[in-house]
What does this fold into?
Amino acid sequence: MRYRHRSVFWILLFSCIAIMPAGAAITESSVCKKVDVTTKVGAATFKCTKVAKKLVWLRFFTQDEAKQAISELQFANGKISDLQAKLDAAQAILDENENVKRALAQRYNPFSELLAKAYQDFLATTSAETANYASNVSSSGKLCAPGVLCLVGSAGPGGGIIFYDAGAQQSWGRYLEFAPEGWSGDSGDPSEYWCDVTSMDFSAAVTDAKLKLSIGNEIGKGQANTDLMLAVCKSGAANVVHAYKGGGLEDWFLPSTDELNELCKLAGSTNEGFEASGDCANLATLEAGFSDAGYWSSTESSDVMASYQDFSVGSILNFYKEDFQLVRPIRAF
It folds into this structure.
């Protein structure tokens, strides 16, 4: 009876071992007991295999699993092949673009050299023209605009009209231009007193010899005369013309008597193109909005008087500084 109980015990024990979940402690390469024994862990099949004199569990693929894995690998390989084909096509396009660039560079290289040479020639020509423009040594004059020579009666750089050409560069410049009609914002030239300081000899107060030589009645003296007026006058003719910024320029001034006379000559011209009449006297008509009245110069005649010109007859006269005459700005360049 005792042996019978012992047999039942061993039967139960082996039955428990047989029904234990074989994969409870099974992992890849973990130790197993018997070669070729298989078990499952989830959907995976493991087989006890002898490796390097050891029994270990190895992942075992059934025929169906192997077919599925091969199918997945083939699908992935197809995707890779498709991507590789696209990469090859893209690389071919890049290579073709590079070839086109090289071909274009070779084809247009001679043309580029011609362009470069033409550009250098242009710079050289422009530099020469700029040098002539700056020095005014050319007998034909300088350019007031691209391709346009500065000529008496033509437009000047300040938007006015050129009325005098000295023929060559002077210390003050070469050309004189006057502000255009309507420069002050009104249809006619404004009437102003010469200066609010009416009893002072400005030129006599100048002690510097060089400065004293720069003022007077000659052509080229208007700028210095105006600067002297601005140093003393708080208001008046010089202040009005100095405030004018025609053409974006700030170098407008009141003309000296000789400059004013040249202006009168052109204003009295009856010829097309505003050519100077030669004499500023007995004027039949006036051009460019000038009036047949008196125009102030920047030339002082005494402590209480300054010079003006009557554009109706051309006479240069002296009158009190507090008197009103017309003004028209000019500039030199």
Observations:
- Confidence is low (pLDDT under 50) at residues 8-24, 130-139, 270-278.
- The chain has seven helices and 13 strands.
- The two ends are 142 Å apart (CA to CA).
